[in-house]
Amino acid sequence: MSTIQVALKRAMRLDGALGAAVVDYVSRMPLGALSHSKDLDLDSAAHGGTDVVRAHLSALKLIGRKPDQLEDILVTLDSEYYLIRPLTRRTHEGLFLLLVLDRARARPDTARLELHRIEDLL
User: Is residue 98 a contact partner of residue 17, using CB atoms and an 8 Å limit?
Assistant: First the structure.
């Protein structure tokens, strides 16, 4: 089993996890994805997440911050959280983790910590 698949399975064990992906924000394509929800389109989420990551990185540059200062991005919807963690180590430049959570069941702080640990696996 690939390291990406191990990382995704670990992310999917979180309470409220609906889907997870490792995404290349240069190509906008997921390198791997898992979902518990047939209604969740992770390809589209990856594409949209890419725009979010690019916008945040551009904003950081404008205010004089380094890209590695960005830990994660939380997008809050009425029923879901989209948690995005750019992978900042040089070997992973251009990748991010995307985790979609059920807002009623998820604990974002716990998910943030777990994504940090998962990043260390990759």
Answer: no
Render pLDDT for 68-96 as a digit per residue (tens, 0 to 9). 888 999 999 999 999 999 987 655 578 99
Q: What mean pLDDT value characterizes the chain? A: 92
Cut 0.85: pTM above it: yes
Measured distance CA(106)–CA(91) in Å, rounded? 30
CA atoms within 13 A on the CB side of 39: 2
Instruction: Domain ranges for the chain, please list them.
Output: 3-121
The set of residues, in sequence order, having a beta carbon less than 8 Å from that of 62 and lying 6+ positions away, is: none
Does residue 9 contact residue 34 with C-beta atoms inside 8 Å? yes
Share of the chain above pLDDT 70, in %: 96
Question: What DSSP letter does each residue of 5-61 carry, written as one string?
Answer: HHHHHHHHTSTTEEEEEEEETTTTEEEEEEES-TT--HHHHHHHHHHHHHHHHHHHH
CA 79: distance to chain centroid? 17
Class of CATH domain 3-121: alpha beta
